[in-house]
Amino acid sequence: MTDRKRMHSIPDLEAKGRKRLVLIVEDDFVNREILKINMQQEYEIICAETGCEAREKIHAHSDTLSLILLDLNLPDLNGLDLLRELKQDMDLSKIPVIVLTADTESEVESLTSGASDFIPKPYPRQEIIMARARRCIELSENRDLIRWTERDHLTGLFNRDYFDRYAEQYDHYHRNDPTDALVLDISHFRMMNERFGKAYCDEVLRRIGAELFTFVKENGGIACRWEADTFQIYCPHREDYPALAARVAAAASGPDEGRVHIRIGVNPNVDKSGDMERRFDRAKSAADMIRSSLTESVAYYNDDLRQKELDAGQLLDDFRGALAEEQFLVYYQPKYNIQGPKPVLCGAEALVRWKHPERGMVSPGTFIPLFEHNGLIRELDNYVWRKAALQIRRWKDQLGCSVPVSVNVSRIDMLDPDLTETLCGLIKDNRLDFSDLHLEITESAYTEDSKQIKDIVAGLRNQGFKIEMDDFGSGYSSLNMIITLPIDLLKLDMGFIRSAFSESGDTGMLKIMMDIAHHLSVPMIAEGVETKEQMLTLKDLGCDIVQGYYFSKPVPAEEFEEFMRQEEK
Amino acid sequence: MLTVESLRAWGANVDEGLGRCLNNETFYLTLVKKAIQDPSFEKLNAACGAGDLDQGFDAAHALKGVMANLALTPILNPVIKITELLRARTVTDYGPLLTEITSARDQVLALAE
Known about the structure:
Largest interface: A-B, 16 and 21 residues
Strand order of the largest sheet of chain A: 11-12-14-15-16-17-18-19
Order of helices and strands of chain B: HHHHHHH
Structural class of chain B: mainly alpha
Largest sheet of chain A: 8 strands, mixed, barrel
CATH class of chain B: Mainly Alpha
Strand content of chain A: 15-25%
Structural class of chain A: alpha/beta
Number of strands of chain B: 0
Strand content of chain B: under 5%
Number of helices of chain A: 23
Oligomer: heterodimer
Shape of chain A: elongated
Distance between the termini of chain B: 6 Å
Mean pLDDT of chain A: 90
CATH superfamily of the largest domain in chain A: EAL domain
């Protein structure tokens, strides 16, 4: 039973003038009939004489059942066991239970086992029975209303709006207890959605929700579905999170054993003086460390990560000053056409470097993901495009020649409504040809919002720009999609080169990728080529253009001019 | 004949029992007839005879609930006593209490004939 179904049943009942449904579980005919006659004017009554019959009826009517009256002495099982069983079930636990008992000792045990109230035997006056039943149903329905607003409707866990509030409340009562903040998600969830569809993925999320519900019920703490496939857990400190990851993955995979891989980022023993958001940001940072790993399932936030975050924060602070002071340098890495008898310089890729006044050269691997994450990459890309366009102009003026320069266009740039205008403006202002500037768009950008991106890229291509699909083979594009994309060149993901020239030496995949390029009649570029052997193998396989340390590392514009001069000779 | 008056004369707290049945006399009398046919009487006798105090307690406990709800006091009082002895698994002679229960029940059975 879902919250949604249950909540809808309340107004529906009133609208149709139907009575709320009450189940009386009582094996004795006389006791059962007395309760029935007392309640049937106000409620629709169904009865069960045994625990098994009760279980069946509860499951059959779980969406509409408003109350259960439960005798403890049933012929086949103890009523308290049935009560505990119901309270362990995420959905059934919401149905209020009033225990019927003749023993004072059982009253306490019933209440601690999850009963909402008890009715003693012999039964009290009808008014008392009815008042207790009404109160239980009312409290339960009010709780449902609250649950409706505070719960994620797919999984039944808290939603993000209420999670922080409950986490703070948890702290209030566990001030000195060591507590962990966890961020849990599914590796490659987007790909799963693409492959298996939304309904399947919703079921996976539901299973994860149920497993986390059981986990916090058994171990204490609270859990929520934060967004999409991301869950947060705030719970007493423990060490065995790999076991939790395995348990959740097994539950999520269900019959498709091993299909779902779970990642957990743990911020252990949180500093409770910091705000709640920060505690989970740190757990998220830990989870991000194992983003692409399928072998690791748990990562911990530690001092190294903390230092990395501080460094990242500093770089972000330095960004604007660096842009104004032109600390970002544009380097050029040559591209060679290798299909002729001799490699011929045929282009360059513009790559950004940061010459930081205090840190020296900062690796692009450090700052580009950072700027991509918070959108600053747009300003940086604009800067690089401008510098590259100016440089092409300069080469044309000074050397009387140039080569096409490709620049990176991030997914975030694609969201800029002025993108086409900006790029066309650069061509016009620098008196360049559209073919002078190639645009590299990563494959994953196409798969995220393919229709919108496709339209934008098609527009740019119609203007005359050459489009290169970067990191081809890494973004899970379907072949069907690639055929329809507006592209002029495919740039092979570096991973293929690495794996083809690793110890295995298996170039089978490379061959397949080349065949795809040939089928589409677009040239293939391979980057990250480091040795002559690699270059020759690629040439044999039919690769058209090569870029990499074998020819040259990325160099400043002045050094790049040497390649052009050599070519002239 | 089993009537509210005859039950009252026998010693039942009829007003209390009838109250639980929303003062519906026919309904109350139907339940009384059903209650005195309760197989738990036989189970109680058999269990106590066999010395099975666990089964004896279950049967007595079941009877106690029914007799209390219908306020059949002459049966209820000895049933309460035997229930508490059996709850404590007291090893004792249950004969006199069983006789008291059977005799009171027989009186109602006679009224019902």
